[in-house]
Design brief:
By secondary structure, this protein is mainly alpha-helical. The chain has 5 helices and no strands. The protein has helices spanning 4-33, 37-63, 85-110, 114-143, 148-161.
Length: 177
């Protein structure tokens, strides 16, 4: 069903998603070590979300009866100079993932793989939200770096307003845990 070139690239993307998940765990641990529980919780939740993105991709490949490769990933960055650095790294990572998803969309189009192209639509929308959210958080963190409790207050307000899960999201292999 899925074009071979698309399958290869989606397997690469699975690695990127798992690596992003690990990086967000490292970010969360850094904030936990500074006793910044809201920042830690934000990144622990982001880690689960990235893991679930990988599992959505795994599920798609399984449904398409395509080869699935579960990769090893490089160790995440764990040494940060200040409270701004992990968020700046996260924004850079989200922008990179946006580019990667766009490239995947290009492969699906070049291969006339319309089912895979349709599968990626949700991820494109998701990346717009991810970059926007991380960009806003970086702005707040940069402004409040000297008083991290202001960042914690911002996250408390924002998390109270967040909606639930997205019913349009693709299913994840093993269910979203």
């Amino acid at each position: 069903m899925a074009a071979a070139r698309f399958v290869d690239r989606l397997n690469e993307q699975i690695a990127y998603e798992f690596a992003a998940s690990q990086q967000y765990v490292a970010n969360a641990v850094y904030y936990d070590s500074l006793t910044l529980p809201r920042l830690a919780a934000f990144f622990y939740a982001q880690a689960v979300e990235e893991r679930n993105h990988a599992m959505m991709m795994v599920n798609y490949l399984l449904d398409a009866d395509a080869r699935v490769t579960i990769p090893g990933v490089a160790s995440p960055e764990t040494d940060f100079s200040d409270v701004v650095a992990p968020v700046a790294l996260a924004l850079e990572q989200e922008r990179r993932v946006s580019d990667q998803i766009g490239e995947l969309m290009g492969v699906a189009r070049e291969e006339s793989d319309f089912l895979s192209e349709q599968f990626l639509q949700w991820f494109l929308k998701e990346q717009v939200e991810e970059v926007s959210s991380m960009s806003s958080l970086l702005t707040v963190v940069e402004r409040s770096a000297e008083s991290a409790m202001l960042i914690e207050e911002y996250l408390a307000r924002e998390s109270a307003q967040s909606g639930g899960s997205d019913p349009t999201a693709p299913a994840a292999a093993g269910g979203a845990l």
